[in-house]
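Usage

Read records sequentially. Each one opens with the input sequence:
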Amino acid sequence: MGYVIALANQKGGVGKTTTSVNLGACLANQGQKILLVDTDAQGNATSGIGIQKANIQKDIYDVLVNETPISEVILPTNHPGMDIVPATIQLSGAEIELTNLMARETRLKDALQEVHDDYDFILIDCPPSLGLLTINAFTASDSILIPVQSEYYALEGLSQLLNTIKLVQKHFNRSLRIEGVLLTMFDARTNLGAQVNAEVQKYFGDRVYKTIIPRNVRLSEAPSHGLAIIDYDPKSRGAEVYSQLAEEVPRSAWQVRKRLEKASARELTRCSRKMGWLTVSMM
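and closes with the structure output:
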């Protein structure tokens, strides 16, 4: 059964797409079967992994709005072991169109059921907003990976993101958890990066990944060639750190899954006790 991770932060330019593409490619290098779902109308994950948008006939918009089976939209990428559900500018109107549709918050979750068992990891690249597209991603996910830029305003707005996560947990996805927090664009030459790191560690504790993504020229260049960093320059620092992250994420995903299993077991026990009490009381 595929493990679904949404990469989200309503701030733009924090490394969501870079992490989605490169984490996916590095996980695929480990032999994992990966599906990348682009839910951002800018379609940067789509073009960043070598898909020509002009050649796309159906995209995530058709899945969410027109209920096209997701298997008809999935495309292979230029990286072995990784497929993608592409996005185009057509998705920009989806927020408005979804408003009037039934089950608008669970459309992505329902669509993914068709291919859920075909992949080891499903990574959802979220748009820089907390609208219906992001809520769909949260509802469909097992956990959320939050990239945080190592800059002054990094923590601004995180409280709003966490409130949205709590609302989704309450109404649509009780098992949703924070997978981890990833520091990105880290510059070891400045004190600011270390201060942001300390603040994030203070707030999120052991949910902060040990891997830190530095500023790296090769990471910035790779999308313009339609390649993941592991394919563009496998010896670069960027390729090294994303390979490290790809080893760390499955371990944390396993820990999240075990916690959920324990929680489910406790819930089952409570339900069993209630059912036992009901049975006795009705006799």
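Summary fields computed downstream for this record:
- Strands lie at 3-7, 34-38, 75-76, 82-85, 121-125, 143-149, 177-184.
- The chain has eleven helices and seven strands.
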